[in-house]
Amino acid sequence: MKRWVALVAGTAMVAVPAVVAADEDRDGKQQNRVEWQQLTPAQQGVLEPMREYWDKLPPGRQQALTRGAERWESMSPEERERVRQKAEHWKNLTPEERERMKERYDRFKSLSPEEQDRLRQGAKRYEDLSPEKRRELRERWHQMTPEQREQMLEHRKHEDDRKDKPDDGNDRDDD
Predict the structure, then answer these.
(1) Measured distance CA(39)–CA(68) in Å, rounded
(2) Residue 26 gets which letter from DSSP?
(3) Of 9, 80, 87, 128, which is least surrounded by CB within 10 A?
């Protein structure tokens, strides 16, 4: 159990790097420290692996970890298991792979909310596929050249855009 708590706490530290690691929030306002005694017993339980160096953490990191502990407590057992699996996956990544994932996360966050939703929907469609179909798609993707991949993504984006537009009843193909 301690291993899982440490894994979750470690994930909170690594999965929240986009949250402030400094003493200021996103608006540049000074953040307040979170004293260990201010944490609820449930938060202390989740964050126990960090207790000995909690006071050395910047206030922004303390607040991010506190929010992460709150989210953890509100998760269902299935959600917690999914987080554990993601944390285990993260732990096994090389530093280069982690850096690439952070860069992708930053790129994703820089997209418009509409584009983020489009990508989330695409990921959901992918997750809903059978394991065999996902394997087939991965194999096809790896066999493509970068140019073919780009064309496929552009084609998919245009398909999604057409689905989002209401049908005005004026089919131009009848001419």
Answers:
(1) 12
(2) T
(3) 128
Q: Quick check: 39 and 69 in contact, CB under 8 A? A: yes
The span from the CA of 146 to the CA of 77, in Å, is 40
CA distance 60 to 119: 29
Strand partners, 30: 24
pLDDT given at position 39: 93
CA–CA distance from 109 to each of 26, 50, 89, 95, 174 (Å)? Answer: 14, 28, 21, 21, 42
Q: Which helix (H) or strand (E) holds 88?
A: helix 77-91
Say how far apart CA 5 and CA 48 lie, in whole Å.
8
List of the chain residues with pLDDT < 50:
4-7, 13-24, 172-175
